[in-house]
Amino acid sequence: MAPRRITKVEEIEHRGLVFLIGPSGSGKSTLAKKWANRLGLSHFDLDKMIEIHEGQSISNLFKNFGENHFRLLEQKYLHSISSGMVACGGGTPLFHDNMDWMLNNGTVVWINLSPEMAWSRVSQSADRPLVLLGKENFIETMKSRENCYSRANFVFQL
Predict the structure, then answer these.
(1) 65 located within any domain
(2) DSSP letters along 100-133, please?
(3) Which domain holds residue 114?
């Protein structure tokens, strides 16, 4: 079933746990702060949470330990959150059972924007692992993720 389109946060039907998913650069972290306040929820930025608890940046975790290690940490911290609004990393729903777990334990909102717009927002950020792939590979990766993102309960189009 296709996700229901929303135009404002108040349209989200939730059970106390809301996950924002979407491409890198879609504004998930910014929206989580704003929207959580409007819904009276606490907010979490999954990448920031990992960086704080692990004591290093996402880029360094990728470089020093590899993507698989990072994805296991990501799953561990994702599963540790029991209520609030969570800004997930762009790849979070694609690995392990994360998307199924989020759908079973809360409400998933896809923050959607074109891969080209996402690239224009993140291309100057050397701290985002996918930027190192270059524009064409970044855009291809973002397009390949849309099938997973489209499993969300709701979609907010930018």
Answers:
(1) yes
(2) HHHHHHSEEEEEE--HHHHHHHHTT-TTSGGGGG
(3) 33-157
